[in-house]
Every structure is written in structure tokens, then in C-alpha cells.
From TrEMBL, chains A, B, C, D, E:
Active site: Y174 (proton donor), K207 (schiff-base intermediate with dihydroxyacetone-p)
Name assigned to this protein: fructose-bisphosphate aldolase
Top EC class of this enzyme: lyase
PANTHER family reported in the protein's UniProt record: FRUCTOSE-BISPHOSPHATE ALDOLASE CLASS 1 (PTHR47916)
GO biological process terms on file: glycolytic process
Gene Ontology molecular functions: fructose-bisphosphate aldolase activity
Keywords: Lyase, Schiff base
Gene3D superfamilies: Aldolase class I
Length: 309, 309, 309, 309, 309
């Protein structure tokens, strides 16, 4: 499989990684309909941990079956599929080699009263990633939460082990908890800070939410205003996030959030594309639609990243 | 021992497991009077940890002897016998090869003041399971409790080790603690969430309690009502639980709870059968009756799962 | 599965073994048409290592396929199937739980010039036995050969590890090499010595060849003659071998040797039965016949051990 | 990447392997111009160890550079590239993700006076394979040599470790040494025996030389003649080798041997194809030609396996 | 590279260290324009963790790129570059061997509500330092804070491991938290105490802030006044800090603090030089200026330590 010039350029940024880890990044970047473009669309399905089964799948009951998601990601020509241990195990042999896998190592939980910003359990091991043939591990951090420090130490160890065994690291960076206001979780300064922290921790791929134009922290607001950091349009804000990801030296993808209208999804994707982001990680907006609708939506999403829409 | 088509189908769902683990699942599925049907009745005896000896056995003093339970499970033609380390050790040689064993790794405790939802001690090892000839380990989690995260990390490590050594994993998933109301522990949404979490954690066999028609969490209620998820009859609710177990790709059995009338036990079993559940795990309702009554009850239970009653 | 009184008696001889190992012995003793009788017929297929593929399978080409042997052992209702790593791997998932497996850890080799009595390579690990779901490991020793001491040390370590993990040990004991004459390999004194050595090494199941009435060693001959040890009939000689196996406290099975006429096979089996041996381990005489002929032969063999022929 | 039905069928044969190992086999089977057909052409470059640099590369000095071979394999659309540690390290980052890699773990050596059939040093580790992103390890055995037993024990351990970490095993099986005549190394009986041994040892992919119609061992000759095993044409002999590889349940590829005329190379490939072999592993006949000639030769080779020539 | 007499003298102070650790100290002391003088200027860039990306880099956007800082440190002829895991990884190969690296193991964080004096996460490992080719690890302690004891135990382990592997330890010692007043953080007695604690903990290089003439602790004030410890001029105070660093037997460098006017920076440096300190560790005052201005400032700084300004 000849890598494109663009993929080779991206791989060159991960200069301290061993060839095994680079090969797994290459697998993700060369997979599917966006393979070779440097753009990514990833299907993540860890809502089950976060919201329980009915809230995740009742609107599309076929999605109770873990095979459904593997097949959706493959049929839509996506770049990778991310899920916790159990669902990956349930299809890893049937779909071995069919799509790059990201083993989600920890997950949020709405059954606990320790909700916002609380720690997460680490529910899988790097050795699980090896035996299931995963290209990457995925890990969520909550910058700003009281659990943050513990999480950073967990991903330090998991990531160090993964890198030594040729497996890439994806960090989901979601600010919350502590003194951060609900609105502030999406504020540009906080989101950029969160993305930057993932980069500082050594992530290969960074996942954050799309930021609003709000500014949360006083010290940061002064800087944003003094330097007139553009933040009016979503594309401008995406561009700022890519700066926070080592000036574009780290892949950054954006999550779609709760299920919403198709047009909003497309608009987000155009802004990500125009702002220089690397793509979307789109869960509920994909699997909470019927398979037919999801394939249509993902098709258009891919076409947007192909500059065809 | 020729496996039935049904058992082969069930084994095919555990596609990432090594043949050793599959063989142990097969042993459970082919054992006893329900062998080959895909249905299971398991005898669990861990009340001693949970309620102490007198509350567990005074009503049937023969049951103070660990051999009693082995013999009961064998004579009733059950699928497996589950117990903590001590009782298994006390009979494992006498009954070696006579019935598949599940080594219960942790257990609740009513002597501690840390009762509801508190953590449990892990009182056995995977190597104990090997030396005692067990087919599976059993582990209780308390979704919703503050101890949940620690429990998930414990079972992650135990299950990873067990899977590598060809031993299956049974997870008892009992919501409790945190903000969950007493009534909510059995609410359909919470029970389905608990079953789903066990599946996400990589369980081969999931054990939950039978759910009521209640709904506990506001966000979930909206979904259940919006999508009209059927929950009037117990069979409908069982069916929903099987959806939460990867749409039926994971074995799910239901516990009988506290000792109660025979008719209630039979009614439960019929609902489990009609809703597509895989069977019962029935402790107190078996060993807290006289041996004669217990055998009669278990006989009828088996016949229900055989579609004869 | 209720063990028979006879199987419980046999298990009682293995009094230092942990319940896991006893359970695996019980699985072999309770399997198939002879299950529960204390008699065994085992299908071993390691001729590929010893004689190469064509000499092993050309007369029945279906047998080139490893699934063939699993299916043959199951369909004939045998007690266990023994083979090296590769063939077991090739069917271990399809037939998981369908028949007890013995992982042959070393094998002879006719491609080497170091033929008779030379060492063998150990080509599998106890951990392989666990992941493949095997009930026992199998190991060949060459009493009398120059390699004997090294082999004894190998099986010491393998057997110790297997016993700690609940896996039984079968020793193939074939005298050869050193000063033993070709004829002497089957001599009663040498064969009894070989069986005894396997017992001394801690084997749970001992496999030897059927002895002739010859006596090889001068010192031994004096004793056999002085004490008039009966050795005229094959049954008498089998009886003497069982004495060498701790007076019957260890299971001993006899190999059939090269393919030969059916009547000879039956005659051997009757002698083994009448002499108190535990059964046959019959490879070439099974798989080097057509499936139909093999099933007929194995059926009759089983019936002989059932005292029906 | 949707796997073809043929590749899925082939993967189903490796039923005891974890999904990680299956994914790596899938990567090899889906790569390059033959991706998805079940046919393979592999470029191996370990002549440096075996014959030294000048004998290997003087006829095409560009081939002194390890990048040359990576690029050749990629540009020719081959299935995988196999080499020892040093050359893989020299290009693994530049070509990360561009072609599946096989880390050759041991190699022959013509500088030693211990030439024919002597042992080989193991010059790499499974952890090297992980950090370099290799899909498989490769290992050479010399069936018949006095070093055979030691080699079997080495590959047992390497293969067990590789399988647990999701990496496939390729065994080069070259009979030599001991009492095997020079001519006998290629004799059909010996070659089939060698292929069978690799399968018995648990290889996923078996590499042997193309056999002649000769028969080396007296005992084998009787069988080949008695059963009229067809061996006149090369295709017939290839077919026999696939039988020896578990009746086609293991991938088998054939080496081209010393550099020779193009027509001979094509003739070999047609016979491999017609006899049901899985492909060629072609080293000297590729890299000892000019790049232009090699690409032309490999193009035609691929077309033959595509049934276009 | 011949070490100067001065550098040899400094190395002689680290007499319990192994030659590997000494060699890494020598690399730092011999690097750049101050190489050989015993003076150091270090560029630290861990503001991203502490203040987020915009507050750190918006005033000089080129500094979002981790390569910028490597290049700045090299072009300015500095002694070492210090940063957290992610930014070091992003340039460690491009600049391998170009400048000594200090891997910052923990970092402060202004997104957390647990701000002042709270613990920090340890976000890198000594093995990361080895694989990235770092000469030292860097670690921040907060003497006086409630987290102090935990931090001391963390650096105990990290430093022990680093020393055993030949890597030096730099401790950033910043008093804060507990009962220390905001003003007291820079008080001479407290700053000297903090420097001394770093020395007591086994640091090779100690980093503190420049002290004021204030005295914070009553018991200390009595002593300072009784003994007339000179503290009027900054140079006198620096001299007192070097006393606290084992009377000059440990290298001590001073941080510049927040960005400020050039003249203030130069004045500080002259005081450090005149007081016998070893140099400056200057972050924001370097990278928050344009590259041109930063190079001019650093040039003058170096010249001051060269006694040329």
C-alpha cells in the first residue's frame, strides 16, 4: 500500500515513535474512503458505558448488536472504529483486518453519583489491544476535574506501554469539573487548553469538542482580546485548536456531540475542514439514525472532507 | 460429547476467545439435564459471606456441609455450581469432574458497616480456579456504587488473566449505592444498564436480577416512553435485558432473589424462558428448602426450561 | 455428570493431585462410549512427526485434514484425542468441548539420522495446553536410550507445571537405544521396567507397547524364572505390566503398533481387558483405514472393553 | 478494507488464533496486487547472512541499500517483505505501513565451517517485531539435520510468544544435513515431510522449495509407489505438498531458489498455481536482476497468479 | 571534547554518582556558548501545562510549534532545553544530539481548582527520558504545601531510577501553599530553605526563584538578624542561596519569572553572576518575545555570564 505524500508528511511529525506505532497510524490514515487524504472519520461507540443501552440504542435497535457498528464503519468507508473491550471482543475475529480498531480504555458513566468530572475506571489493558489486533488505545481525560491528575498518571503508563509495543494513543480531552462552568466546558480558551494538554501528554491523535466563541478564564480572556485571536467563525476557532495541537503537528479530530440535525453535522464538518482540523469522530449522530440514514449522512460527511460538498 | 447445533451457535458468539475458554463454556452448556439446549440452571452458594451461616443454613442444617451443595447440584442435573474458595476446596476432589464449577472471586458482607454498595474483597485467584478445576470465575460488580470504578479495574485484570488461561468469566451485576433508590435497583432501565456494563467489561455470562417495570433515571425514562419499549410483562422485560446483552450475543441468567413461594419461582422461570433469557441462577430458593423440596422445585424448573411445563 | 463408582475409585488413586487434575482425568474417564467403565480408547495422531505425511495418510487421504481425526474420535465415541500442537490448533475451536484433548509435547522423527532412541524436541508448552483447552499433556520417553536422563528432566518440569495448573500427564514409555536389542524393546522385563519408570516419574496415564514373552536382561531373567512370573499368554503379560504400574494404581493403556489385521487388534484388546489393562491407544490401526472401516473397528474395540464381544 | 470471501475462508482455518494474529494474516492476504485472491508473492532478502554481501548484491549494486528492497516490494505490488533485523530497521520508519513485514529471526551462514544443516543463531526477538510493526516472524528449520531438535524448541517459544501478541509465524522448512543426500533435499517425500513438520509446529504460513519427483527414503518410496501418488508434473507435486499442509488448511508458498531464467520462474509459478499452492517467495530471482527486469518479472509472476498468463 | 578544569571541578562534587550521570551533567556543562565555564542558561517551556496555549504562545505564534523552542535554544547557544513529554517527542529525532534535553516530569496546571500548592501529575517516566535521549529529568516540588510529602516521595523514586540509569536530576523548588504568605514565597529564608530541600533530596541541579530581602518565618528571622546575614543586595542574597546548596557543591540556577523588561533580566543575571550562582533558566522572557528579540536578549545574557557585559 503506497502511502500518499500527505500521509507521509503526517507520519513525519511523530518523529520519536517507533515504526510499529507509525505503521498503526498509517493504517488509520490509509483506511477507507478518506484513506491518504490526511482526513479521518472515526466511529466511536462507548455510549453504552456513558448512558446505558436504551438511551444509546433504542432509537435504532439493530445497534444493540456489536457487529452492527463494525459493519457500519466498514460499509461507510470510515477510518477506524472505537469501542470498549466487550464490544470489540464480540466482533474482533469476524472483522479481523477489516478496519483499524481503537480500544477505548476508560469510559464515563451516568449511573454513578460521581458524575461530572469524576474518575473513570480503566477497563482494558494494552495486552488486550494486542490480542484484539487494535491499532490504537483510546483514553478520556477530564482537564479541570479533581480526577485530572490521576488520569494523567494512568494515561502516562498506558501510553508508555502502548508506544513500546507499536500501538498508537488517542486522547479524548473533555474539560469539566472543578471550577469550570457548564458553558465554560466548550469555551475556546478551555477547549484549546484541553487539546494542548492532550498533546503535552504525548497523544498521537487528539479528540476535543467543537468550541464556542466563549472565553472562560479571566487570565486567558485578556490574552485572547489583546492579541485579537480570531474566534467569530467556527472555522477560525478550529484553526486555533490546531495551533494548540503543536501548530498542527498532531492530528486533531472533533466530536459531534449529541444527535442533531444533518445540516448541523455538515456545517460542523465544513468548519473543521476549513479550519484545518483532521476530521470528525461521530458516534450518536451515526448509530442513532437508521442504517440507511447513517450511511447517507456519513457519505456526505466523507464527501465534505473530500472537498466535494 | 457431540455439541448440539444450539451450543455451537452460542460458542460462535465468543469469537475472540481461545479454544480453552470455549471448551469451558461448552462444558457448562452441555452439562446436566439442560445440556445442549442453550438454557442453564446454576446453583450459587455465597450466602455465607453475605448473610453469615445461620441466616443462610439454619432452615436446612444439612446445608452447612459444603458437600451438600455439590450433591444437590449434581442430583438435580444442574449446569454448574458456584461458590467461594473455601466451600469449593472442601469438595472439589470428591466431586472432581462431576459438575462445572464457578469460583466466586468476591462476595458481599453484612458484618461490615460498609454495607450497601461498598466494595467487596477479592478472596480468590485465577490460579485457584485452575487448581480446583473450575470452568469459570465469578465476580460481583455494583454499578452505581462509589466502589464501582475499583471493581471494574479488578475484574479487568482477573478476566484478562482468566481468558489467557482458558477460563470463562461470569459477572454478577447488581446496581446499588450512589444515588440509586432502593426501588431503583430493580428498575428496568437500571437493570438493563447493569447487564450492559457486564457485557462491556467482557463477561461471557451475565447475571442480573429480574427487573420490575419501574424506570429510575429521568433521562432514561424519556427514551423508554418515547420509543414505547414494552415492559408490562416480565417476559417483555427479560427480552429487553437480552437486548442489552449485545442483542443476545452474551449468555444472561437471572437470579431468584430471596426465598419465596414455589409458584413465584416457576412464574419467573417461564418469563425468563419466554423472554429469551438463558436461565436461572437459583441459590436460596434451592438450598433453603429441604433437599426433597429443593429437588422437586429444581426438577420443575428444569422442565420449564425444557418447555415441558 | 455423575461419576461412576469405578471412576471415583480410579480417581482416588491419584491422591496427591489437585482437584483440577482429577477433573481432567475424570473428563477422559467419563467421555465417550466407555465413559464410566474405567476403560479407555484413545486416538493418537502423531505419525506425521514420526513417519511423515505420506506414510501416515496416503492410504486414507481424508486423514491429511486435522478435522478428520477430531471427528473420527468423536463419532467413534472414544475417550480422548492426542496430537501435536499444529493439528490441535487447527481444530481446537471447532471442536471445543467435544472431546478431551491430549497435547503431545514431543515426538519421534524418522528424517533425522539420530533415529533410534535419540532425543526428541519439545514442541509445545503447558500454556499451549491451557489455551487449547487440553485435559492432559503427552510425553514420550525412551528408557534405555542415551537421551533418557535428559528426557526425564524435561518431563519432570513439564509435569510439575501441568500438575500445578490442573492438567494431567500421559507418558508414552518406549524402551530403545543403549544396549537394548531390537527384540528386547518388547521383552516383558524391559516393557515392565519402562512402564514402572513412567509411574516413578509421576505419570497419571502410562502408555506402553504390548510385551512379548521374551526376557532381555540377564539379571531380570533370573528373577522372572525363579518366581515363575506367568508370561505365556498376552493377558498374563498385561497383568504383569499392571503390577509394574503400582499394582494397578496407575492407568495403563497399550498401543496397537503398526497397522495390522482386524482380528489381531481385537485379540490384543481382549488380552488387555482380561489382563486388567485400562485400554488401547490406537492410531494407525484407526486412521489408516477408511473412515467406515475405522468406525467399524473402533466400534468392535469398544464393545470388547464393554465385555460385549 | 472489506475482506474478500476467499480471505475470510483462509482466516477461518486459523481457528485457535486470536483476532490480532488473524488481522496480521489478513494484512498480508489483502496487500498488493494479489490482495484478496488468497495468493501471495513475498520478497525475502536474507542472502546477506547466507552468502555475504558481494555474492548477494554485486550483480545489482543498488540492492546493497535496504531501502531498495522495500521499494521494490511496494512498487511490484507484492504481499510482504521479509528480512533480518538490521535491514528492516534501516527502512521501517520510511516505509511504515507501506507493506507487511516479516522479521526473519534466524538465518543460514556460509562463513561458518558448520555449514550444512548446522544450527542458526536467533538474531531477533518478538519485541523487535512489535516495535518495527511486523505482521509476522519468520524462522528457518532444517528437518533432518542434527540441529533440528534445538530449532524446534526455539520456534516453539518464539511462536508461542508471537501468537500471544497477535503476530503470525512463517516457517521456512529446508531439509538438509543428517543422512539426507544432496539430491534428497528436494525429493518429494522429504519436501512433503518438511512442509508437514512446519504445520505440526504451528506455522501459519509454510515455505518450502519446489520438489523434484525423486523419493529419498526407502520406507516412503514404498508408500508413494503403492498408492500411486501422482508426481510426474510439478503441479501434481505441489498438490501433494498442499496435502501435507493439513490438506490445504495452512498457507504454503514456494521458494524460487537460485537465480535462473525468467521462463523457469514463470513455469514454476504456473505449476504452483495449478497445483493449488498459495504463491511464491522469490528473493534472488528478483533482487539479483536490475530493478527494471525485476519489476517486469514480478509483474508477470503476479499476472500468472491472477490467471492472466 | 576536553572538559575544562572548571567543569571537572564541578563534576567532582557529584562524587556518589555513576559515570553515566556525570557524563550527562558534563554534556550540559560543556554545551553552547557557556560550555566549559560552569555557567548555564537553560530554556524551559512548560507554560502550556501551567497556563494553557494562548497565554503561553499567542504573543509569538511561531512558538506553538515545538520545533521552534529546540531551534531557539540551539541558535542561542544555550546549555539545555527543558519541556514535558509531548513537546520533546515532537522534536527529539530532528534535534537528536543537538542540545541536552531535560524531560519535565510534572507540571502545574491553572485549569484545576486545586491550584496553589496542589499536587501535580507525573506525566512522564524515566524510560521515556532514556528513549528520548534526555540528559536529565526535571521535577517541581512545592515546599510548604500539603502536597509536599507526596512530591518528595515521587522524586525519591524517579531520581533513584534516573541515577541508576545514568540520568541527572533537576529540581524546581517553589515554596507555596500551607501557611506561607504570598509575599513569603520569595522571602530569603523561605527560598534558601526551598533550595536546601532540593539539595537534601539529592538534586544535581537546583532551580529556585530569585529571593527578596523579606524574611517569612519568625524563628528564622531571629537567626538572620542575630548573625547579620547580608541580604541587602540581590547578589548577597544569591550568595546566601548558594550556601544553602551545600556551600556551592550543587549547581543552582534561577528562574526569570513572568515576562518583563530586558533591563530587569540583565540586572538579575548580573546579580546571579556576582553572587556566585550558576546561571539562569529563562522561559517566558525568551519565547514570549519575537525570535529576533529573544536571540538578542539571550545573546546579552550569555555575554553577562561570560563577564563581557
Amino acid at each position: 500500500m503506497k502511502l500518499t505524500r500527505r500521509v507521509k508528511e503526517i507520519l513525519s511529525w511523530y518523529e520519536s515513535d517507533n515504526p510499529g506505532t507509525k505503521a498503526n497510524l498509517a493504517r488509520i490514515l490509509m483506511e477507507g474512503r478518506l484513506g491518504g487524504t490526511g482526513k479521518l472519520v472515526i466511529l466511536p461507540v462507548d455510549q453504552g458505558f456513558e448512558h446505558g443501552p436504551a438511551r444509546s440504542f433504542a432509537m435504532n435497535p439493530a445497534a444493540y448488536d456489536p457487529h452492527y457498528h463494525y459493519q457500519l464503519a466498514i460499509d461507510a468507508g470510515l477510518s477506524a472504529y472505537a469501542a470498549p473491550l466487550g464490544p470489540l471482543e464480540a466482533g474482533a475475529a469476524t472483522f479481523a483486518g477489516s478496519i483499524p480498531l481503537i480500544l477505548k480504555m476508560n469510559s464515563a458513566n451516568s449511573l454513578s453519583r460521581l458524575k461530572e468530572g469524576a474518575d473513570q475506571a480503566v477497563t482494558a489493558s494494552v495486552d488486550d489491544a494486542l490480542r484484539l489486533g487494535c491499532s490504537a488505545i483510546g483514553f478520556t481525560i477530564y482537564p479541570g476535574s479533581d480526577a485530572m491528575f490521576g488520569q494523567y498518571e494512568e494515561i502516562r503508563e498506558l501510553s508508555r506501554e502502548a508506544k513500546s509495543k507499536g500501538i498508537a494513543t488517542v486522547i479524548w480531552s473533555y474539560p469539566r469539573g472543578g471550577d469550570i462552568s457548564k458553558k465554560g466546558e466548550l469555551a475556546l480558551d478551555v477547549d484549546a487548553y484541553a487539546a494542548h494538554m492532550a498533546a503535552l501528554l504525548g497523544a498521537h491523535i487528539i479528540k476535543v469538542k467543537l468550541p464556542t466563541a466563549d472565553l472562560e478564564q479571566d487570565e486567558a480572556r485578556k490574552i485572547y482580546e489583546k492579541h485579537n485571536i480570531p474566534r467569530e467563525t467556527l472555522a477560525e476557532r478550529v484553526k486555533h485548536i490546531t495551533q494548540a495541537c503543536f501548530n498542527g503537528r498532531r492530528i486533531v479530530v472533533f466530536s459531534g456531540g449529541a444527535a442533531k440535525g444533518e445540516d448541523a453535522v455538515y456545517e460542523d464538518a465544513r468548519a473543521i475542514r476549513d479550519g484545518g482540523g483532521n476530521g470528525s469522530i461521530i458516534g450518536r449522530n451515526a448509530f442513532q439514525r437508521s442504517r440507511e440514514d447513517a450511511l447517507a449522512l456519513l457519505d456526505k460527511l466523507v464527501r465534505i472532507y473530500q472537498n466535494k460538498e
